[in-house]
């Protein structure tokens, strides 16, 4: 994404693309120029009447960027022997990082399917050496859908149908095979389970009216059983991870993951990145995210699959919020979150419906445009996040890293996983590794904005 912004040379159109792709559930955490262009082109052809003007501008700029990238690559390839060799080495390195897809065809008869009925899928990069018996299982993120219109739309993307999933994807950050980028987990078996159910792998119903399958729970169970059958059952270490909607899924399924290894000597832990979605009051005084989550839980049959330690005393919608779950999780878990989570700022605190006067329009896309009152509101959100983990942090087995950045998802990006963001000079990768391997207790909560100059802020 940094490279793309550099080619465009304009931060607003670039952020418009990021905003568009993230809000429409395109994979900006591993933005592939060609595949994302195809996805947006498909969307434009099918929903041109609903596309915002800046989205069309973003598409045009993306196509220009693609041409610039191709021209730059061609120039590098024709710019002398030394440059050609560098280009070839870079291309080979990229090819080495690409991990092929595997479809769970045998699980279709058990109902473990995407929303359109296509098979669920995963990517596996096998471990080696000392890591050959250790496993990371990553649950892909990508938002949710809460009504027939938005869910139907997702069936025309990789978040609702495996027909649209990339056949190869790059593993970066905590999923990287590079010891420099990912020193503690680079040689583990690393798996990404693709997300195509739209309820954080927790729904289990079929909607006769739309013909859509909401089978996230079955995908989760079948994928794990399959991985156990191909070697994970003998794992000495296992780590369940996820980002955003996948981070929420890692929280919801953490104890279930641990139960798969019951009676074994496996060290089992979980990591939830950007999954701490709060039941917060929005700028209008309402609760936009609670309303949204309520629709998801009801439409997709989520309630029976939520942790009973929560549903025995709270309603199902409340139990879709991590703040009501984390204190009762028995399996050790690490929460990684930005205190000023940009997705929550844009979609939960200041969504368009809660801000009809557009008073928050500039602020939510550019923190430097926030006035004192708005900054104070955001500080209140941070305070709520810190308060929500107070009981959780009391457990010695749990880990915590809440930095004062305007970001969303930091474990799968090289620039944030083992890059600049740090609390008390300790980076995210080091913090997670120290916690997992028991080298140190990690309970890191950053000072309030704007004290942290190590951030890789999105806005």
TrEMBL record:
UniProt signal peptide: none
Name the SUPFAM superfamilies for this protein: alpha/beta-Hydrolases (SSF53474)
State the Pfam families in the record. Answer: PAE
Alphabetized UniProt keyword annotations: Cell wall, Cell wall biogenesis/degradation, Hydrolase, Secreted
Q: Which GO terms describe its cellular component?
A: plant-type cell wall
Q: Which GO terms describe its biological process?
A: cell wall organization
Which EC class heads this enzyme's classification? hydrolase
Primary localization? secreted
Where in the cell does this protein reside? Answer: Secreted, Cell wall
- EC no. given is 3.1.1.-
The UniProt GO MF terms for this protein read:
pectin acetylesterase activity
Q: Belongs to which family? A: Belongs to the pectinacetylesterase family.
State what this protein does.
Hydrolyzes acetyl esters in homogalacturonan regions of pectin. In type I primary cell wall, galacturonic acid residues of pectin can be acetylated at the O-2 and O-3 positions. Decreasing the degree of acetylation of pectin gels in vitro alters their physical properties.
PANTHER family per the UniProt record, alphabetical: NOTUM-RELATED, PECTIN ACETYLESTERASE
User: Can you say what this protein is called?
Assistant: Pectin acetylesterase
Species of the source: Triticum urartu
């Amino acid at each position: 994404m940094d490279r793309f912004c550099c080619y465009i040379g304009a931060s607003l159109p670039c952020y418009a693309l990021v905003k568009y792709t993230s809000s429409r559930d395109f994979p900006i955490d591993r933005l592939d120029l060609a595949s994302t262009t195809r996805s947006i082109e498909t969307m434009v052809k099918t929903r041109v009447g609903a596309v915002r003007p800046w989205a069309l501008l973003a598409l045009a700029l993306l196509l220009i960027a693609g041409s610039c990238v191709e021209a730059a690559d061609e120039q590098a390839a024709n710019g002398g022997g030394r440059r050609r060799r560098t280009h070839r080495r870079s291309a080979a390195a990229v090819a080495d990082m690409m991990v092929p897809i595997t479809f769970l065809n045998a699980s279709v008869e058990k109902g473990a399917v995407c929303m359109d009925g296509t098979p669920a899928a995963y990517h596996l990069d096998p471990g080696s050496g000392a890591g050959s018996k250790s496993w990371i299982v990553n649950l892909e993120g990508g938002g949710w859908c809460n009504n027939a219109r938005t869910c139907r739309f997702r069936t025309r993307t990789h978040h609702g149908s495996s027909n649209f999933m990339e056949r190869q994807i790059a593993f970066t950050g905590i999923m990287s095979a590079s010891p420099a980028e990912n020193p503690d987990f680079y040689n583990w078996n690393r798996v990404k389970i693709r997300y195509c159910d739209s309820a954080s792998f927790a729904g289990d119903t079929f909607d006769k009216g739309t013909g859509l399958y909401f089978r996230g729970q079955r995908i989760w169970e079948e994928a794990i059983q399959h991985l156990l059958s191909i070697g994970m059952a003998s794992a000495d270490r296992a780590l369940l991870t996820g980002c955003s909607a996948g981070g929420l899924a890692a929280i919801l399924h953490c104890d279930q993951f641990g139960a798969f290894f019951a009676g074994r000597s496996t060290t089992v832990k979980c990591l939830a990145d950007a999954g701490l979605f709060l039941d917060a009051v929005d700028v209008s005084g309402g609760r936009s995210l609670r309303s949204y989550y309520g629709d998801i839980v009801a439409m997709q049959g989520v309630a029976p699959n939520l942790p009973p330690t929560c549903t025995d005393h709270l309603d199902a919608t409340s139990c879709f919020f991590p703040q009501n779950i984390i204190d009762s999780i028995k399996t050790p878990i690490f929460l990684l979150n930005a205190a000023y989570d940009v997705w929550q700022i844009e979609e939960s605190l200041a969504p368009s419906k809660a801000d009809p006067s557009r008073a928050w329009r500039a602020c939510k896309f550019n923190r430097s445009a926030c006035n004192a009152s708005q900054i104070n509101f955001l500080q209140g959100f941070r305070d709520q996040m810190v308060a929500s983990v107070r009981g959780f942090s009391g457990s010695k087995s749990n880990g915590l890293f809440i930095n004062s950045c305007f970001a969303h998802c930091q474990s799968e990006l090289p620039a944030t996983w083992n890059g600049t963001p740090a609390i008390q000079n300790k980076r995210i990768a080091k913090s997670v590794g120290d916690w997992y391997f028991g080298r140190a207790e990690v309970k890191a909560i950053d000072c309030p904005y704007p004290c942290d100059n190590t951030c890789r802020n999105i806005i």
